[in-house]
């Protein structure tokens, strides 16, 4: 959060606009929650009133039944009814008896006696009072039913209007089981309460890709691998974010995992553990669950969000923000993908060009000519995409922001990444700009072993994640002093 007493320069004004925009989104979310709470209370009050009305009606009906006079001998039972003497056995009507007189009714339709000459006779005061009460009760009953129907319709419409958009967005997210927040691999769980840890996997699955997408097909490249694997850590105090990349050729001992079907998202039989394999095989074999298990074993961190992004989702998000600007020192040509960027300087990348920029592994102008160079480009691109997303051109443009959320939601999969989670995170990270994000690469030897795998530096890796878990200065980072001002920015990588 910006300090209102600091000099109001352009950067401060820009951060304040971002804060205000996120505050509006947060306020809208809070208003929806408050409105829903009020609706629940109104529904409860309405239900209570209806129950009270129903109880009163039951009492009135019971009391009326008790007050009605019992039939007596000689009473006229009413039109169309046979005469019955309640005190004597039923009498037979003689065959030569005159036919019964037709029943007569009053001209106004009300109940009442009619004389021999057809003239209306006045009802007794007690009869009129009872009839008036019965009419009033019938009207009250009809009014209660109508009110209940109208109230039900209004509640339905109001609830649908308030939550329709949120439900629509949540429905776009493809939920796939991925998390294991009770894993025995999690170290010092109490210290991680309130932290947000996102495991971000860029999948190279070709499922659903069209020929013009230029990414291949499931026939040529079946299954799914994790081209990109990042762990994004946001501490409880939301003071910064740290993103750690894992090389796709990192050597691991893969645990036993359930086999994952990328086409259906289902898990099946258990695949036995394997030693000295590449980390990206964990996704190919066991999908999100297996990757989460491996990363928690390496880091000891409690992963509470899993985000998988496919090729189409990546391109859609980049295009939604109008492209991402990267700095290119010299033309970028890849041994497999060909010419990717022919210009130099600051270049705006979109669509396939942006996708190839982060996919390329064998770039001639890259001294490493390896996955390390690609991870550095991915981190640079991720930082630029974050800046573009947090810029006023996106946050203050509802069209672009909606397009970005749509692209993200429609082309991502995972667990615990719904609208509520994103709004909560955005609210807690107000004031955190893209410059507060530190990009790192997990420490490795820097050279492939005889199996072509990258080897982890165990002690340095343990120190790194210990610092993150305890929200302490990172290895090589100077402790903060009271005189320190401004956000920390850094980009580090394992030796190439």
UniProtKB/TrEMBL annotation:
Residues 29-54 have a biased composition (Basic and acidic residues). The chain crosses the membrane at residues 143-164. It comes from the Bacteria. InterPro entries: LytR/CpsA/Psr_CW_biosynth, LytR_CpsA_psr. Gene3D superfamilies: LCP protein. Residues 74-87 have a biased composition (Low complexity). It holds the Pfam family LytR_cpsA_psr. Keywords: Membrane, Transmembrane, Transmembrane helix. Residues 131-140 have a biased composition (Basic residues). Residues 29-140, 471-496 are annotated as: Disordered. Residues 482-496 have a biased composition (Polar residues). Belongs to the LytR/CpsA/Psr (LCP) family. This is LytR family transcriptional attenuator. It comes from Prauserella shujinwangii. The lineage of its organism: Bacteria, Bacillati, Actinomycetota, Actinomycetes, Pseudonocardiales.
């Amino acid at each position: 959060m910006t300090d209102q007493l600091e000099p109001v320069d352009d950067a401060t004004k820009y951060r304040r606009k971002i804060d205000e925009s996120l505050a509006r989104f947060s306020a809208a979310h809070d208003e929806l929650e408050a409105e829903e709470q009020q609706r629940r209370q109104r529904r409860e009050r309405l239900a209570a009133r209806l129950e009270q009305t129903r109880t009163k009606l039951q009492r009135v009906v019971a009391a009326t039944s008790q007050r009605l006079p019992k039939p007596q001998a000689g009473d006229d039972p009413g039109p169309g009814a046979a005469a019955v003497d309640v005190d004597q056995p039923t009498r037979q009507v003689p065959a030569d008896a005159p036919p019964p007189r037709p029943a007569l009714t009053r001209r106004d339709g009300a109940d009442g006696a009619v004389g021999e000459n057809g003239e209306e006779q006045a009802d007794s005061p007690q009869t009129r009072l009872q009839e008036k009460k019965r009419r009033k009760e019938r009207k009250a009953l009809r009014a209660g039913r109508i009110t209940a129907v109208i109230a039900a319709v209004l509640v339905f419409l109001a609830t649908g209007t308030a939550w329709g958009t949120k439900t629509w967005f949540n429905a776009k997210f493809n939920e796939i089981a991925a998390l294991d927040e009770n894993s025995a691999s999690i170290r010092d769980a109490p210290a991680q309460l309130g932290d947000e840890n996102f495991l971000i996997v860029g999948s190279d699955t070709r499922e659903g890709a069209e020929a013009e997408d230029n990414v291949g097909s499931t026939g040529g490249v079946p299954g799914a691998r994790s081209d990109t694997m990042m762990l994004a850590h946001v501490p409880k105090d939301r003071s910064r974010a740290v993103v750690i990349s894992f090389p796709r050729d990192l050597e691991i001992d893969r645990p036993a995992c359930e086999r994952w079907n990328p086409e259906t998202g289902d898990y099946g039989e258990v695949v036995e553990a394997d030693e000295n394999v590449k980390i990206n095989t964990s996704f190919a074999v066991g999908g999100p669950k297996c990757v989460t298990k491996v990363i928690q074993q390496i880091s000891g961190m409690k992963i509470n969000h899993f985000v998988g992004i496919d090729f189409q989702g990546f391109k859609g998000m980049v295009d939604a923000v109008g492209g991402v600007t990267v700095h290119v020192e010299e033309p970028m040509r890849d041994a497999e993908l060909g010419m990717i960027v022919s210009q130099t300087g600051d270049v705006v990348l979109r669509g396939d060009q942006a996708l190839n920029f982060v996919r390329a592994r064998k770039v001639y102008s890259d001294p490493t000519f390896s996955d390390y160079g690609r991870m550095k480009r991915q981190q640079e691109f991720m930082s630029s995409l974050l800046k573009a997303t947090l810029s006023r051109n996106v946050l203050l443009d509802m069209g672009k922001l909606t397009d970005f959320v749509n692209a993200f939601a429609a082309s991502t999969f995972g667990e615990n990444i719904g609208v509520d989670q994103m709004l909560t995170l955005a609210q807690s990270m107000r004031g955190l700009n893209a410059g507060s994000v530190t990009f790192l690469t997990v420490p490795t030897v820097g050279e492939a072993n005889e199996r072509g795998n990258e080897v982890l530096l165990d002690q340095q890796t343990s120190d790194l994640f210990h610092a993150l878990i305890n929200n302490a200065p990172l290895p090589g980072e100077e402790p903060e002093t009271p005189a320190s001002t401004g956000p920390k920015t850094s980009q580090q990588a394992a030796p190439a």
